[in-house]
Fold this protein.
Amino acid sequence: MPAPAQTQISRFARNDILYSMNLSAIQAALRERNIDAWLFYDHHHRDPIAYRVLGLSPNSMVTRRWFYLIPAEGEPTKLVHKIESRHLDSLPGKKLQYAGWQELFDQVKVLLSAHRDIAMQYSPNNLVFTISLVDGGTLELIRGLGKNVLSSGDLVALFEATWTDEQIQSHYAARDAVDAITAAAFQEIGRRVRNRGTNEHQMQQWFMEAFRRENLVTDDPPVVGVNAHSGDPHYEPSAENSAPIREGDFILLDVWAKKNSPAAVYYDITWTGFVGKAPSDRMREVFNVVRDARDVGVKTVQEGIASGRIMCGWEVDRATRDYITKAGFGEYFIHRTGHSIGTEVHSNGANMDDLEIHDERRILPNSCFSIEPGIYLPEFGVRSEVNVLVRPKAAEVTGKIQRELVII
């Protein structure tokens, strides 16, 4: 959540992360975007975003529909069922209640009577599906009252995917540890291959032990993929399916982790290497295309932010994808260029995406995302991933940048 010192009202802690509502910051964001109000709606905990942004406990019993309206100006309003009338008592504002469905519809009409442009957790055509949580029937209800429903995507990004100064420092701490561990992993692979041998799963477990030593945590273990497995973007080695790592193999390491501390954020990288003295010309060619496409993406962000213009995630994907397509590998680049990074490795900010979705969310100051183009061939795959941290007037790659294949 943005750092300005403003009143935080409702709050709860979960997994050592404090979630709290900053009413004045929300209202300022609405005014900046010329949106009349932000309407939150839930039942049975279907919208986790609402609970985090509003600072509501996700552990309360919620079996009936509730609405909470934050206007750009003035006092918020709650609408709750009479048998769960105290559910939103931690939030400021006046309270409306209902019991029957007709009374609910009448009260929704009252709730929205002074507003036309309403932000909700909605995305046109369900493009940003992590945001589009309001059901179709509720959208029909709101639109039936003559309201213009807008996507809350940029608002959610502001309150879920921008970092405080403390979180930025936690990212740097994770970077220092992960970069060192990844460099050591390549050396360990070489030592093991030339000694008693190793496989993907064993090296994955080596990473997890290194994480424990460095007080790092992760939602999933890193990817260690050899040859054809490196061409599977979400390959997961296990003790049962793990391939051996041998001389002459191509290897991909996708490594993400964060410090084991409250509100820490992730660092997420991918490097590739070759076990032996001489990678093939094909390996070098594909690596160079991916590396250069990555750098085009980084340059696109840096130049756009330095110019002061509003940038969207799709623009970065378009630049990297065009480069790979012109190099003749477009059909092998099968995922978006990058994703938002936060307390979860995939956060709720703008993704660098003009493939899976046309992501029109703004790239915001104090947000971070990956740039990770890839080319995935049947025999091997290359991905090169860096993290980009955006400040108000500049953008930086936060860690080491791979320039050549690692020779193991």
User: Anything to note?
Assistant: The chain has nine helices and 21 strands. The two ends are 42 Å apart (CA to CA).
